[in-house]
Amino acid sequence: MGCRNPSIGPTGQQRDPVHSVNFLCQNMSEPLLSEILDFVLTLSAEAGRFIMPRWKRVAVEHKPDGSEVTEADRGAEQLLRKRISARYPRHAILGEEFGGEELRDAEHLWLIDPIDGTASFAIGLPLFGTLIAYLRRGTVCVGLIGAHALKETIYAVKGQGCWYRYEASKLARVRTSAVVNPKQAFVVSTSLEHTDMDVREPVPAARLSRLYQQARRFRWSGDCINYALLCQGLVDVALDSRMHPWDIAAVAACVTEAGGVVTSLDGNKDIIWQSNLLACATPQLHAQVLQLLGSD
User: Fold this and answer.
1) Which of 78, 109, 104 shows the shortest CA–CA distance to 91?
2) Is 18-174 a domain of CATH 1.20.1050.10?
């Protein structure tokens, strides 16, 4: 079984949202999701305190696949792993910098990306964040986007909506927009790689050019920040043509709880383990965007 997070108490009273909810699970020996959420928020804050003094001040290396990596990435992931393992020694961890096993149906699995958007981080752009997701038996129960440079946090708990906080300000529930037509949509993408617009290695099956032509506005923006904007209703479509589980899990949880729809670029709903991501504000918009992206 996955997570059971009732918002109604045993006597019928309405519970307070998210933080004060007394989350219940089928197995009462498991940690409550309220406990997990508090821990995730603490992890993100601690990662931010480690990362931000190194922003604009670290040397950049390149991995075999050409992607950027810094000592801030590695150090932040080591920090997150140390904290998670100390608190929950039996939980599995899969992260960008130090890997791990793809235990898709693990009792407890953490998917972490210490700095999603290292390319932006490396050149001084604020379009990066820490991604943390907690999965229970294959279901994402808690997901967080920690946009440290923007001082923003977006997080979600399964069945309890998506929430936004700026610094220490009051929480606000956020929702995706009501846009249903691509011609009215603001679309953002991190890059054009692995699509038909990629002049070096074009992928004709991913027809990004058609969406580009149809959209009201199209911007190339940055990684997890795109999905944070989508959750707030500030953009309507976000997509990435190259992703990993640690890139997807947290943002997919947030978008879904904000009212959006997430699949792969070809419509696969088993999204966490796909190699790309499409997120849209509404089901109607998602269906039309999928049609535009698909090959004839």
Assistant:
1) 109
2) no
Phi and psi for 215 in degrees, rounded to 5? -65, 150
Share of the chain above pLDDT 90, in %: 84
Burial of 33 (0-12, 13-18, 19+ CB in 10 A): buried
Cβ burial, residue 262 (10 Å; 0-12/13-18/19+): buried
- 77: nearest Cα among 43, 113, 38: 113
pTM: 0.91
Give residue-wise pLDDT tens across range 1-11.
Answer: 456 543 423 33
pLDDT band at residue 209 under the 50/70/90 scheme:
very high
CB 34 within 8 A of CB 19: yes
Angle between helices 245-257 and 223-231 (to 10 degrees): 10
Residue 3 to residue 10: CA distance in whole angstroms: 17
| Cβ–Cβ under 8 Å, residues 146 and 48 | yes
The pLDDT value recorded for residue 83 is 98
- DSSP per-residue letters across 232-296: TTS-SEEEESS--HHHHHHHHHHHHHTT-EEE-TT--S-GGGSS-EEEESSHHHHHHHHHHHS--
Fold of the domain spanning 182-293? D-Maltodextrin-Binding Protein; domain 2 (3.40.190)
- Predicted pLDDT at 168: 78
Q: Considering the chain, tell me which residue range(s) the CATH 3.40.190.80 domain(s) occupy.
A: 182-293
What distance in Å separates the CA atoms of residue 148 and residue 46, rounded to the nearest whole number?
10
For residues 58 and 259, give the distance between their C-alpha atoms in angstroms, rounded to a whole number: 38
Q: Which of 5-9, 74-78, 142-146, 206-210 has the lowest mean pLDDT?
A: 5-9
Where do you find CATH 3.30.540.10 in the chain? 18-174
The two structure tokens encoding residue 189: 């993408």
